[in-house]
Structure to design on (146 residues):
């Protein structure tokens, strides 16, 4: 519920967006390490999916955005650990959100081969249908004109 309220406010106020980005940058080492609890990882995946269209749009934040995308991709691979399956499902859902948006696809197009290579490593462990939809979407994007 809080994310929904925050998304509504951030969409209208650029100062809030800047504050949100600064907070994320300052907490980035904590979120991107392997130590957070499962609930924190799952909620962070949800957060990325919720705000992917608004945060880190400037060119100077390109690497930070890529790190978040890589975080989601890595979380997909957690499906082989039963205690982490919820994280993987949330990451898949967030990636679906990203891949459904044309503007986001333009942002991530340079990373598609790397994402597909990582997903190929997950083929035997991830059994969720949405994962395979993502793989198909990436293949289609790679073989269509940019």
């Amino acid at each position: 519920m809080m994310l929904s309220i925050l998304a509504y406010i951030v969409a209208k106020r650029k100062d809030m967006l800047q504050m949100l980005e600064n907070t994320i940058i300052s907490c980035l080492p904590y979120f991107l390490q392997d130590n957070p609890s499962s609930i924190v990882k799952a909620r962070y995946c949800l957060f990325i999916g919720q705000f992917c269209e608004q945060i880190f749009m400037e060119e100077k934040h390109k690497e930070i955005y890529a790190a978040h995308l890589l975080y989601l991709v890595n979380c997909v691979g957690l499906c082989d650990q039963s205690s982490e399956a919820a994280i993987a499902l949330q990451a898949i859902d967030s990636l679906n959100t990203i891949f459904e948006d044309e503007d986001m696809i333009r942002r991530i197009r340079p990373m598609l081969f790397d994402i597909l290579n990582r997903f190929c490593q997950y083929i035997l462990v991830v059994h969720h249908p949405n994962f395979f939809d993502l793989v198909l979407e990436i293949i289609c994007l790679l073989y269509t004109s940019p």
Remarks:
- The chain has a mean pLDDT of 84.
